[in-house]
Design brief:
Chain lengths: 114, 117
């Protein structure tokens, strides 16, 4: 158990809908990262937050957005969902945002878009 | 073309045997390289982290090597166990452009390792 929690575990929805994924980092960690992993694909970095502020952006679509709240939990919002958005979405956290900081991954949310 | 290439894509070996997984990268400037183990449907777990100045690092039966000149890394697993069955992911981190380190990561697509009894 990494100490990172993600809810829900599974999510099934229809195309065109909007969903929110939630992540709680490890106690004391200030940085949160979101990743997407499609079937048989590698992890794609989406976005990083540090202490409430956006720190880095990866391959995040305009239909996706995220935020980190004052209590440091984070939410990833996915809108106008398409079939291709079906994937595992992982959240990770680290103590700081330094390049050497180890990231601890949550168990993931499996999103299925029908 | 992915800037982090891993080989082989998949590997099947007998329990108790050793194996070596490869990671070649072209991204630069390079900050550090990590190997992760990802069980099916679970989040990745870090095995080793190496900076450009480190040549080798061990974590139990896992030993990672790094040659920053040739931009190659390998992960050697000794005396494999059934629980080693997983995907192994190589991740290269770029140097940040700010003092805090911009988290620019490039992930390999992983090697799927299967250990059979």
């Amino acid at each position: 158990d990494s100490g990172v929690t993600q809810t829900p575990k599974h999510l099934i929805t229809a195309t065109g809908q909007r969903v929110t994924l939630r992540c709680s980092p490890r106690s004391g960690d200030l940085s949160v990262y979101w990743y997407q992993q499609s079937l048989d694909q590698g992890l794609q970095f989406l976005i990083q937050y540090y202490n409430g502020e956006e720190r880095a952006k990866g391959n995040i679509l305009e239909r996706f957005s995220a935020q980190q709240f004052p209590d440091l939990h984070s939410e990833l919002n996915l809108s106008s969902l398409e079939l291709g958005d079906s994937a595992l979405y992982f959240c990770a956290s680290s103590v700081r945002d330094r390049s050497y900081n180890e990231q601890f991954f949550g168990p993931g949310t499996r999103l299925t878009v029908l | 073309k992915n800037q982090v290439e891993q080989s082989p894509q998949s590997l099947i070996i007998l329990e108790g045997k050793n194996c070596t997984l490869q990671c070649n990268y072209t991204v630069s400037p390079f900050s550090n390289l990590r190997w992760y183990k990802q069980d099916t449907g679970r989040g990745p777990v870090s095995l080793t982290i190496m900076t450009f100045s480190e040549n080798t690092k061990s974590n139990g039966r896992y030993t990672a090597t790094l040659d920053a000149d040739t931009k190659q890394s390998s992960l050697h697993i000794t005396a494999s166990q059934l629980s080693d069955s997983a995907s192994y992911i190589c991740v290269v981190r770029l140097v940040g452009i700010s003092n805090f380190g911009n988290e620019k990561l490039t992930f390999g697509t992983g090697t799927r390792l299967t250990i059979i009894p």
